[in-house]
Amino acid sequence: MARAVRREPAEFGMDYVNLPEPSVTTAAGGRDEGSRSAPGTKLLRLVGVSFGLLCFLQVAVNVSLRLTLFKSDGQTSPTGPACSNETVKQEQLIERYIQRGWVRFHSSVYYISSNRNTWQQSRRFCLQQGADLVIINTKEEQDFTRQFNRLTWLGLHNKTKTGNWTWVDGTPLTKSYWGPGEPNGFEGKMENCVEIRFFELENSWNDIPCGDENYWICEKAVAP
User: What transmembrane ranges does the database entry give (predicted)?
Assistant: First the structure.
């Protein structure tokens, strides 16, 4: 039998057992629908989660692309495109010299003159080309300079404060290829400059006065 529950005004000060709050919605047939998700709620949650994942993936892709582009600019790797650009510029420089009649040998290009001049004037010409009179550093370079069969100036002289044989870049002479009996200051002359004279010999150098006129060889280093 149903039990009636009395609701008395609060002012009476008496305690009564409160009834449970009624369900939000009661469907036909007596079943309580308040404990179930509203229609479409699960679908909305799924759509929300999927959208969140797509946003995360988009952020990851953007970061990856930025890193890739940053590296491609040559800012992170010294062996990347920046070095490639330097190599291209170096090759273009070499090509310009070759087009003007210079010859490449190992890490330098060389100009062999077709007219004669004094040692100082010959050097001035080389300097104007961004080069200098040739410096012999190796036996291979010594053999290379002998093949032209011309009396040619070298970038070697002793017109220095010390009077020692010195290359035009200021380095002292350490390995020499003097011809037989050279240097000798022939007939008491001031032979302060050096030429290639004895083409058939590995030791082909000869000292002569700097005011004499010779062909010359310019050298321009183009690679480390």
Answer: 43-61
The tens digit of pLDDT for each residue in 80-104 reads 566 678 788 878 888 899 999 999 9
| Sign, Cα dihedral of 89, 168, 107, 116 | positive
CA dist., res. 122 & res. 155, Å (int) = 10
Nearest-CA neighbor of 150 among 215, 224, 53? 215
pLDDT digits 0-9 by tens, 22-46? 444 444 444 444 445 555 666 667 6
DSSP 146-175: HTT-S-EEEEEE--SSS---EETTSPBP-S
- 3-state SS, residue 219: strand
Place of tokens 């002012």: 11
Q: How many CB atoms lie within 10 A of CB 72?
A: 12
Task: Examine residue 101 and state whether it is found in any structural domain, yes or no.
Answer: yes
- Please report, in angstroms and rounded to a whole number, the separation of the first and last CA atoms in the chain: 109
